[in-house]
Specification:
Elements: H1 3-17, H2 22-35, H3 41-50, H4 55-62, H5 74-87, H6 91-94
Helix pairs in contact: 1-2, 1-3, 3-5
């Protein structure tokens, strides 16, 4: 892994765990902690773009309250939704 990817992973992990809404910190942060080291460069880029979205929008996608209309997030958003619903038992069950 290049030095730049290492720094990018650290920046994205910080960005995922310091969102502003505590629930988003916990949920998005848990996904990042478990998956960021497995992401390839294109997935890191998609995750970076995803983290630019509002917490409300990301959590609405995860709770299936909003249709995913942004193809620019590719597989990363699908992986996040799967993580929330399978690994954590879904957002509705957590809160």
């Amino acid at each position: 892994m290049s030095e730049n990817q290492s720094i990018l992973r650290k920046r994205l992990l910080y960005k995922a765990t310091h969102r502003g809404i505590r629930e988003a910190d916990v949920l998005i942060g848990a996904f990042a902690k478990e998956n960021i080291h497995k992401m390839v460069e294109s997935e890191l880029s998609e995750f970076d773009k995803l983290l630019d979205e509002s917490d409300v929008e990301i959590l609405a996608w995860a709770m299936d309250q909003s249709k995913i209309t942004e193809p620019k997030y590719g597989a990363v958003l699908q992986q996040f939704c799967h993580f929330i619903n399978q690994k954590l038992g879904g957002v509705k069950k957590l809160y």
